[in-house]
Specification:
59% of the residues lie in helices and 13% in strands. By secondary structure, it is of the alpha/beta class. It has one domain: 3-Layer(aba) Sandwich (Rossmann fold), CATH 3.40.50. It has a five-stranded parallel beta sheet with strand order 3-2-1-4-5, with helices on both faces. Strand 4, helix 7 and strand 5 form a beta-alpha-beta unit. Helix 5 packs across helix 6. It starts with a strand and ends with a strand.
Length: 141
C-alpha cells in the first residue's frame, strides 16, 4: 500500500491523540509513506502551538521536533510544483477546501497518477476526506 498522510495524520505519529494507533498501524503496513513538503512546516507549527498552550514541556517539544526532523527523510515528500498548485486551486474551489488541504489532496492525486497505482489517503479532516473520496482516492484515518 502507498499511504499518503496529510498533516493531521502525520502529527498523530508524534503526538498521542485520538487516531494515533490507527495511523501508526497504517504506516507499519505501508510500502511507502508520502506527504507534501507543506506538512513539515504545518506539523512544526502544530507542535509549537501545543507547546505555547502548555500541552508540551520544553523538553517534550524539543523531542517531538527532533523526531520529526530525523524521520522526515523516510517520507516521500512531494514538492509544491506548478501542476500541484494549479490542481490544488481547482480542488479548493470544487470542494470548498482550505489552501493547504487542497495542496495535500492535489499531491495525493498527482502521486496516484504518476504511479498509476492506488494511493490510500489518511486525514483526520472530514471535509478533506469527503473531497478525497469524491476524487476516487481510498480514504482512511
Amino acid at each position: 500500500m502507498i499511504l499518503y498522510l496529510d498533516t493531521s495524520s502525520l502529527v498523530k505519529l508524534y503526538v498521542r491523540e485520538e487516531g494515533s494507533d490507527q495511523v501508526k498501524a497504517l504506516v507499519d503496513r505501508a510500502e511507502a509513506v508520502a506527504t507534501s513538503q507543506v506538512a513539515y512546516p504545518e506539523a512544526y507549527a502544530a507542535f509549537a502551538r501545543k507547546q505555547r498552550q502548555g500541552d508540551f514541556t520544553g523538553r517534550q517539544y524539543r523531542s517531538v521536533i527532533k523526531n520529526l526532523q530525523q524521520d522526515w527523510g523516510f517520507y516521500f515528500a512531494l514538492d509544491v510544483s506548478w501542476p500541484v498548485a494549479r490542481l490544488a486551486g481547482e480542488l479548493a474551489e470544487r470542494h470548498e477546501l482550505r489552501g493547504f488541504d487542497a495542496i495535500h489532496l492535489a499531491s495525493a492525486l498527482i502521486l496516484k497518477s504518476k504511479l498509476e497505482s492506488a494511493v490510500t489517503f489518511s486525514s483526520a479532516d472530514q471535509r478533506l476526506e469527503v473531497a478525497a473520496t469524491a476524487e476516487k482516492l481510498e480514504v482512511t484515518l
